[in-house]
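User: For a reading group we're discussing how well predicted structures match intuition. Take TSPO protein. Before you show the prediction, I'll give you the sequence so everyone sees exactly what went in.
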Amino acid sequence: QGRMWAYTVGFTVLPHVGGFLGWFMNRKEIPVWYEKLKKPSWCPSRKIFPIAWTVLYTGMGYASYLIWNDLGGCSSKAVVPLGLYGAQLALNWAWPPFFFGAHNMKLALIDILCLDGLAIGTMCSWYRINKVAALLLVPYLGWLAMATCLTIRIWKDNPEQKPGKSE
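Assistant: Thanks. Here is the predicted 3D structure of TSPO protein, as structure tokens, for the group to look at:
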């Protein structure tokens, strides 16, 4: 019983690790670079992002625990559902370094479009295993839809500067 508690916490905390590292590594770029970008009027306030990601990462982490538990741990049945989850989580963690770190909005856009597909695939694969786990991903998919639209708008409204060009 005590060991299952540790697994529950571990799976729930895991997504936060990459999210925190992404924020920590890129936090200085937000006031210096991101604030100067042209953004649409519907762009959420900077204060909303850490709250949203805390809720979303907690839900997706706990959902991944439910899937892992229902499939008997790291069994052969878990390879595809947890593999899709791991792949989408890796793309989720890669977005901040692409966008904030490298200022490469095109690569960030490609990343988030692939992330969208993998997140949808994850939810579909989870639905047959545990409907609650799949439904815990719905807010995440909603936020990803907004983040994808925001990435597209920022990419379109802020043409990338060519190296050597003066402003």
